[in-house]
Design goal:
Elements (H helix, E strand, L loop, with lengths): L1 E7 L4 H11 L6 E8 L5 H8 L3 E4 L8 H15 L3 E4 L8 H6 L4 E5 L14 H10 L3 E8 L9 E8 L6 H25 L3 E4 L2 E4 L6
Parallel strand pairs: 1-2, 1-4, 2-3, 4-5
Antiparallel strand pairs: 5-6, 6-7, 8-9
Helix pairs in contact: 1-6, 5-6
Bound molecules: glycinamide ribonucleotide.
């Protein structure tokens, strides 16, 4: 059974998609063991607690400097001893030590088709604002492993979504969530939980499902 730690900062709709997928059997061999938010007001914390999942807040604001925060953050994560860490709208930079310790065991959902509209400064609504400003016709979402760069790790799954006439950043964000994020994030977790994801030379290989 894959033990999942989900890191969140905001509304937690991706967390909800994971919880629902575990409940309805779309994701097998996995359980959400704990949730950590850097924001004590994140609605994601309420979603976790309503679901009976252990949830805590660890904020950089509560520590004198980033180094101390990183230490405490890593301690809290190690105490949970997760098999994988899922960044579901988590907006804090992951400490290098954590990336090294959990190499190819941290995954992130990003609301674009990487390598478009990703990297420093591209998060949340800003991604959709940039896509509309550029006039692209297709957007989407990506699940990838986290490495030392920003949105540079091996790509696990991507899904495209069409831009429509009259889209606002908010409308587009919602469509990308509904049609892509809430599907590919649970799917990626299911693939990992069932031993079907391998990383070779910085690329992800999805193994065939074994015949039962
Ligand atoms: C999601 O759209 C997620 O892809 C994005 O933040 C949103 C969180 O929503 N993440 C990033 O932009 C990371 N670079 P949620 O709290 O409702 O899941």
């Amino acid at each position: 059974m894959l033990k999942i730690l989900v890191l969140v900062s905001g509304g937690g709709t991706n967390l909800q998609a994971i919880l629902d997928a575990v409940d309805d059997g779309t994701v097998t061999n996995a359980e959400v063991a704990a949730v950590i938010s850097n924001n004590k007001n994140a609605y994601a914390l309420t979603r976790a607690r309503d679901h009976g999942v252990d949830a805590q807040c660890i904020s950089p604001k509560d520590f004198p400097d980033r180094e101390t925060f990183n230490e405490k953050f890593l301690e809290a994560v190690d105490a949970i001893a997760p098999d994988i860490i899922v960044l579901a709208g988590f907006l804090v930079v992951i400490p290098a030590e954590m990336i090294a310790r959990y190499r190819n065991r941290i995954i992130n959902i990003h609301p674009s088709l990487i390598p478009a509209f990703c990297g420093t400064g591209y998060y949340g609504l800003k991604v959709h604002e940039a896509a509309l400003a550029r006039g692209v016709k297709v957007v989407g979402a990506t699940v990838h492993f986290v490495d030392e760069g920003t949105d540079t790790g091996p790509i696990i799954l991507q899904k495209a979504v069409e831009v429509q006439e009259g889209d606002t950043p908010e409308i587009l964000q919602r469509r990308v969530m509904e049609q892509a994020e809430w599907k590919i994030l649970p799917r990626a977790i299911d693939l990992i939980a069932n031993g079907r994801v391998a990383v070779e030379e910085n690329k992800v290989k999805i193994k065939e499902e074994e015949q039962r």
